[in-house]
Amino acid sequence: SVQSLLNVERDSTMDIAGLAYSVISAIKPSDWEKFGEKVAGFSAHYVDGGLALRMDSRAGRLFIEQRGEDRYFASGWEIRSEQEFASALEELDSHKVAYIKATPEELALRHVLDMVWFHDPSGNRHELALGFATSFERFTSPAGVSGFVTGDLGYGHMVLPAPQITETRNFMIDVMGFGLSDLLIHRPEGPGGPEQRIDFMHCGNGRHHSLALLEGEVPSGCVHLMVEVETMDEVGRAYDRMLAANIPLMATLGRHTNDEMTSFYMATPGGFALEFGFGGRVVDWDKHTVFESTSVSLWGHDFSVGFAAPKEELVNAA
Q1: Tens digit of each residue's pLDDT (9 = 90 or more) over 252-295
Q2: Distance between CA 148 and CA 140 in Å, rounded?
Q3: Which ranges constitute the DSSP H helices of the chain?
Q4: How far apart are CA 22 and CA 127, in angstroms?
């Protein structure tokens, strides 16, 4: 029930700074190179173990590994210090969460100092990453994007499948220290269509949500990733690039009720969507009241154009 959601207390000592990166599996990493540079405006760099897509001065925010399928693979959560990393491992141990230390190859691709990974109750892979390694080379967008909103807010957010949504939400709160921002009953096919609960969750920064959990299965392992740009004009320019590249539109331009992001959604080579937005809320959590939203958007965001379309119409971006 909604009341039981609001009664959950955040009692974990884990201190996650933000969403550091995502790892994506690809049959052809070059598909992500083309999509990233020509449409999204990221810069693409081949590194040891795969492809890094940059959005800022870090070595990468999306890391693409060549595997036998196109899908989302892992979410990387940033831990700021060695002391906090040790404390995070103690938190995992105290909850009897089995975790695996990263291999040297995994650390090299992600450009982090240390990392462990584990699964939540719905099977999503989470990685706790200590710090980062980078040359601090200036980010230059091949598409001319002025900049992405990252820094202390992390690189954006993602929506993950959570068929075991109550257990998964509790895991994120009790073990990983997330807080509940708000919740929504979503009807992606419109009034009268099937209902899905979405729990929006925040970590150690002011971004309204760094993670959302969708009640149900998602074959690609992710519903969408979100990146934020500095101006509304950059959203419009990305929309034009999407049209020019014949990328399928997944949801029309709109403004969300909860995080107030103005955005559109487009298909990616990974089988999930990329939300491209501007103007997201930065929240003072001491003054935030948890709420249930009964509408996903103030205006726009017609999801029926993409998310409810037959799968054969949603060709991969190439």
Answers
A1: 999 999 999 999 999 999 999 999 999 999 999 999 999 998 88
A2: 11
A3: 2-6, 29-35, 82-94, 104-110, 165-174, 232-244
A4: 9
Q: Is 308 exposed, middle or buried (0-12, 13-18, 19+ CB in 10 A)?
A: middle
Which residue shows structure tokens 């584990």? 118
pTM recorded for the entire structure: 0.92
Query: Which residues have C-beta within 8 Å of that of residue 318, sequence separation ≥ 6?
Result: 31, 34, 35, 269
What DSSP string describes 245-305? TTPPEEEEEEEESSS--EEEEEE-TTSSEEEEEE---B--GGG---EEES-SEEEE--GGG
Residue 103 corresponds to which tokens in the numbers above? 């291999």
| Residues found in the chain | 318
AA letter at 299: W
Tally helices (H) and strands (E) across the chain: 6, 18
DSSP of 141-164 = -TT----B--GGG-S-EEEEE-TT
Longest dimension (CA), the chain: 52
Q: Are 111 and 130 in contact (CB under 8 A)?
A: no
pLDDT, tens digit, 9 for 90 and up, residues 194-218: 788 999 999 999 999 999 999 999 9
Residue 133 CB contacts under 8 Å (≥ 6 apart), including other chains: 59, 111, 112, 113
Q: CB of 128 within 8 A of CB of 85? A: yes
Q: Which of 134, 76, 95, 68 lies closest to 12 in space, CA to CA?
A: 95
d(CA 213, CA 158): 9
Cα separation, 33 vs 56, in Å, equals 16
Q: What are phi and psi of 243, to 5 degrees?
A: -65, -45
Dihedral, CA atoms, 254, 260, 262, 266, nearest 10 degrees? -70
Helix or strand run (H / E) with residue 18: strand 18-26
